[in-house]
UniProtKB/TrEMBL annotation:
It holds the Pfam family LptD_N. Residues 152-182 are annotated as: Disordered. Residues 152-163 have a biased composition (Low complexity). This is OstA family protein.
Length: 182
C-alpha cells in the first residue's frame, strides 16, 4: 500500500507543477499585454458607418475591423462612444456578433466585448475562448486589465450564480495546457 501512496503523491505533485508552469506561462503572456498603448490611434473599417453626433457615438456594422497598436478587434457590429471637448476622444467600444480580439499569438473570442478606454479594461462575455499557442481557456466572461496585465476568466458570463449565461462552459472555466516534451 505504501508504494501505491508514494506513486499517487508523486503524480499529484507532478500534476501540480505542470499546472503551475502552465499558469505562469499565461501570466507572462498577460504581462506582455500590459504594455499595450491604449492612447495609440484607432483605425477602423466596416461595411456601413453611421455617425450619431447628438449621442456622441459612431455605429459600425458589417465586417467591422478595428485596430490599435497591434490589438485587432473584429465583430459584426460595434458602437463607439466618444467625447467631443475640442478634440474627439474614444471612451468605449462595445462590440457584438462573433467578436474576435487578437494580439500576436493570442486570440480571444466571445459573443460580446466592451473596451473601456478610461479604465483600460477589455471585457468579453458569452462563450468566451482564449487561445495562446496550444493553450486554451473557456468560460463565460474574460476580463483583460491592460494597465496591470492581469487577465481573469469566470465560468458565468454575468459573474453571478444564476444558471443563465453559462454558455458552453456549463458555468465553469475549462481548458487545456500543452506540456512541452523533454
Amino acid at each position: 500500500m505504501k508504494p501505491l501512496f508514494l506513486t499517487m503523491a508523486r503524480w499529484g505533485i507532478g500534476s501540480f507543477a505542470v499546472t503551475a508552469v502552465a499558469f505562469a506561462g499565461m501570466q507572462l503572456s498577460a504581462q506582455a499585454i500590459a504594455g499595450h498603448n491604449s492612447n495609440a490611434p484607432v483605425s477602423y473599417a466596416a461595411d456601413r458607418i453611421e455617425l450619431q453626433d447628438r449621442q456622441n457615438r459612431v455605429v459600425l456594422s458589417g465586417n467591422v475591423q478595428i485596430t490599435q497598436a497591434g490589438l485587432n478587434l473584429s465583430a459584426a457590429r460595434t458602437i463607439v462612444n466618444y467625447t467631443d471637448s475640442g478634440s474627439l476622444k474614444i471612451q468605449r467600444i462595445m462590440a457584438t456578433g462573433g467578436v474576435n480580439v487578437t494580439r500576436g499569438n493570442e486570440r480571444a473570442r466571445g459573443d460580446t466585448a466592451v473596451y473601456d478606454f478610461n479604465r483600460r479594461i477589455i471585457t468579453m462575455a458569452g462563450n468566451v475562448r482564449l487561445n495562446r499557442g496550444g493553450d486554451t481557456l473557456n468560460g463565460g466572461r474574460l476580463v483583460i486589465d491592460l494597465a496591470s496585465g492581469v487577465s481573469s476568466v469566470d465560468g458565468r458570463a454575468s459573474g453571478s450564480s444564476s444558471v443563465t449565461g453559462q454558455g458552453e462552459s456549463g458555468g465553469r472555466v475549462t481548458g487545456t495546457f500543452s506540456v512541452p516534451e523533454n
